[in-house]
Amino acid sequence: MSLLAAKKLPHRWDKYLERPFWRLVQLFGERIFRGGGDSDSEGLDLGIGLVLTMLAMPGGFVALLLLNKYGSLLQWMRGQKNVDTLMIALPDEYFFIVLSMVVTGAVAIWRWDAIFPDRRDFGNLVHLPISTRTIFSANLAAVLFLVALVAFDVNAASCVLFPAVVTAAQTEFLFFVKFAAVHFIGAVLASIFSFFAVFSVLGALMAVLPASAFKRISAYVRGLIVVYLVSLLCTSAAVPDKIWRIRDHTPAWMFFLPSTWFLALCQSLRARSNPALMQLERLILPGFLVVVAVALGTYAIGYRRHFMRIAEMSETTAGTRNPRPSRFGNALRQLLLRTPFQRGCFSFVAKTLLRSETHRLVLAAFAGLALVLASQAMMIALEGAKSARAAALSADALSVPFILTFLSIVGMRLVFEIPVELRANWIFQLTLDRQRQECEPLARRVILITVLPWAAGVTFAVYFYFAGIVAASLHALLVLTWSVLLTNLLLIRFRKLPFTCSFPVFKQHSIVILIAFCFGFRIYAVSTPDFEASALLNPIRLLSLLPPALVAWYIPRHFAGNTIEVERKMIFEETGPRSFEMLHLGE
Amino acid sequence: MLEANQLTKRYASLPAVQDLSFTLRPGQVLGCLGPNGSGKSTTVKMLTGLLEPTRGTVQFNGHSIQDDLPAYRRRLGYVPEEAHLYPYLTGWEYLEMVGTLRGMARAAIESKIDRLLQLFSLHPSRHASIGTYSKGMRQRILLIAALMHDPEIFIFDEPLSGLDVTSALIFKNLVHALGHAGKLVFYCSHVLEVVEKVCSDVLILRKGVVIAHDSVANVGRILGESLENTFLHLVDDVDTLRVANDIVEVMRAA
Question: What value of ipTM does the predicted structure carry?
Answer without folding.
Answer: 0.78
